[in-house]
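User: I've been trying to design a sequence by hand for this structure and keep getting stuck. Would you show me what you'd pick, starting by listing the structure so we're on the same page?

Assistant: Good idea, let's start from the same input. This is the structure you sent:
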């Protein structure tokens, strides 16, 4: 397994990757509380970007409503914890299948009736909005009043109930990003990864050579949805409150996809690099404006738009493919 993961990767790249991983592991030892919070947000979007990238970057299915799966995972685990005291790791056993089933339902409707491209994207937005309105009126999850998780002061980190210091959440998300990266690389090197690539490049051609495009697109949607729901659970137990407008809003879906687009859609490192670049620079901008006493509503959104425009013009494939060529890493699927 390890040999497959590092096959074809230059030694200098492995050394550089090892340095980056070591720096991330040791970061909480020297980071301030604010920097730690920023790193948690970066890792959160890096993980979400990887999950979305499976669906769009690998299989070519554009989802603009991925926040649906974040919300389903978050509300399932949080509601079970609030009402019945069921821990989040057990709650995931409900949230992940619910998100997977939702993804399968949307995928079945779209792929069975040949709904693709922009129309599939609109369909995903519609279901996310439907969920937002539905949870607004769902009393079990407190509707528009918000679902609040009880917060207690712990003398130690309680990993089982995800109660404790932000450092604990940092390492949970770091592990999730690493596992997602390994999982994505294994998928790309497998038979299904090549089927996804064929579907992404030319679905009709893939179908003509005998690939069951319906089946493999469904697999991509379900895997992506299930992975995304895990991030929702972490979101709920980190912030300790959930509001439908906060969780299901389309702007959240846009934030999810920006990292992979900037970093490089369809690549392994792209979503991670994009999250670090976008979130890191955006937080730096916010801190600079606060230090200057300047209040510019929407400044972060404008910054995201400018970054996206610059990347599309200067590096249409994203930052990572350009960087990979610069450091001598061959192949377009790294």
């Amino acid at each position: 397994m390890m040999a497959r993961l590092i096959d074809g990767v230059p030694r200098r790249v492995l050394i550089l990757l090892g340095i980056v991983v070591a720096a991330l592991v040791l970061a909480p030892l020297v980071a301030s509380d604010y920097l730690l919070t920023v790193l948690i947000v970066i890792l959160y979007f890096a993980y979400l970007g990887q999950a979305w990238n499976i669906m769009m970057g690998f299989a070519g299915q554009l989802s603009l409503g991925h926040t649906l799966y974040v919300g389903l995972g978050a509300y399932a685990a949080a509601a079970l914890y609030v009402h019945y005291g069921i821990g989040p790791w057990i709650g995931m056993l409900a949230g992940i299948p619910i998100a997977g089933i939702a993804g399968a339902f949307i995928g079945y409707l779209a792929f069975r009736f040949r709904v693709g491209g922009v129309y599939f994207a609109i369909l995903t937005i519609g279901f996310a909005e439907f969920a937002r309105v539905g949870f607004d009126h769902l009393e079990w999850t407190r509707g528009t009043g918000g679902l609040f998780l009880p917060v207690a002061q712990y003398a130690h980190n309680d990993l089982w109930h995800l109660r404790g210091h932000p450092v604990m959440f940092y390492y949970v998300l770091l592990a999730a990003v690493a596992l997602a990266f390994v999982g994505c690389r294994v998928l790309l090197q497998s038979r299904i990864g090549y089927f996804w690539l064929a579907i992404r490049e030319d679905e009709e051609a893939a179908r003509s050579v005998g690939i069951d495009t319906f089946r493999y697109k469904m697999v991509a949607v379900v895997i992506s949805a299930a992975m995304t729901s895990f991030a929702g659970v972490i979101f709920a137990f980190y912030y300790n409150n959930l509001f439908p407008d906060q969780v299901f809003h389309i702007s959240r879906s846009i934030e999810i996809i920006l990292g992979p687009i900037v970093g490089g859609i369809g690549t392994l490192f792209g979503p991670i690099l994009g999250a670090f670049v976008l979130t890191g620079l955006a937080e730096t901008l916010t801190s600079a404006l606060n230090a200057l006493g300047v209040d510019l509503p929407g400044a972060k959104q404008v910054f995201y738009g400018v970054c996206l425009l610059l990347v599309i013009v200067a590096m249409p494939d994203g930052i990572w493919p350009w960087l990979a060529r610069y450091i001598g890493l061959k192949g377009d699927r790294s």
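That's my pick for every position. To get oriented when you compare it with your attempt: The first strand starts at residue 147 and ends at 148. The radius of gyration is 20 Å.
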